[in-house]
Design goal:
Layout lengths: L2 E4 L5 H12 L3 E6 L6 H4 L5 E4 L5 H11 L6 E4 L8 H4 L6 H29 L2 E5 L15 H21 L5 E6 L16 H14 L7 E4 L8
Parallel strand pairs: 1-2, 1-4, 2-3, 4-5, 5-6, 6-7
The structure holds NADP nicotinamide-adenine-dinucleotide phosphate.
């Protein structure tokens, strides 16, 4: 039975990843900040739930010490934050404290989690899927704004590319994924697609990834996105 670790699995895309991999017969280790308040997640049959605030880098190291020795077929780095309201992200009023928090959660945590889990991923010749965003694409930026979020995702794209190069000799493949504009708390009600469609698409993309195609940036439909 393959094993997947999903972060931020109490709602949104993370919850859907946990549901779909559990339904497909995988062993699912799902993390969230507050397991006691994560009824939708703890209610899924067979899912193991672990408490983890990915912004707490000591907790990330402890999580790695607990799970990093087991064979891990897939690590889905899903937990993420938008970082703040429009004013906090706007020219003239960027909130530096919120920006640093956003980087810790969206950019540094994915690296520290990869470091913490690399031993287990190597055992299974596993994969790392990082949920990033098209708004982290420099080439695609025509509107500006959302500086905290955009920069954290542009930087995590580089984290993913580095991981792909550095972990290839250990047989670990990496993919950067834009889930589409999805109806979640972050995506909002006007978003274009459901979590079900986004996650089924991303699972197909993840299935197709190997060390030979590692370090690329795709949307949920498999379309490659320019950096
Ligand atoms: N929805 C979209 O349209 C869209 C588009 C592009 C990219 N994405 C990316 O896709 C991923 C999932 O997004 P979503 O739409 O499902 O977002 P969401 O509905 O806002 O859910 C975010 C998840 O991340 C968790 N999280 C936030 N900060 C955390 C922390 N410090 N430690 C642990 N967990 C934390 C949240 O946990 P709590 O409940 O504890 O806050 C929640 O489970 C994110 O990386 C996001 O940037 C989403």
């Amino acid at each position: 039975m393959p094993t997947v670790i999903v972060t931020g699995a109490n709602r949104g895309l993370g919850l859907e990843f946990a549901k779909q991999y559990a339904a497909a017969g995988w062993r699912v280790i799902a993390t969230c900040r507050d397991p006691a308040g994560a009824g939708a997640l703890t209610g899924i049959d067979g899912v193991e739930v672990a408490a983890l605030d990915v912004g707490d880098l000591d907790a990330v190291a402890a999580f790695g010490a607990r799970y990093g020795a087991e064979a891990i077929d897939l690590f889905v780095n899903n937990a993420g934050t938008y970082g703040g309201d429009r004013a906090a992200q706007a020219f003239g009023s960027t909130d530096a404290g919120a920006w640093l928090d956003t980087f810790r959660i969206n950019t540094i945590a994915p690296m520290k989690l990869a470091e913490a889990l690399a031993g287990g991923l190597e055992k299974a010749k596993g994969k790392i899927a990082i949920l990033t965003s098209k708004v982290g694409s420099v080439a695609d930026n025509t509107s500006g704004g959302a500086t905290l979020y955009r920069t954290s995702k542009a930087a995590v794209n580089m984290v993913g590319k580095n991981l792909a190069i550095e972990l290839a000799p250990r047989g670990i493949a990496v993919v950067l994924l834009h889930p589409g504009w999805v109806k979640t708390d972050m995506g909002g009600p006007n978003a274009l697609i459901t979590t079900e469609d986004s996650v089924s698409g991303m699972r197909r993309v993840i299935d197709g990834v190997s060390v030979h195609t590692s370090g690329r940036f795709y949307d949920y439909s498999g379309k490659e996105i320019p950096w």
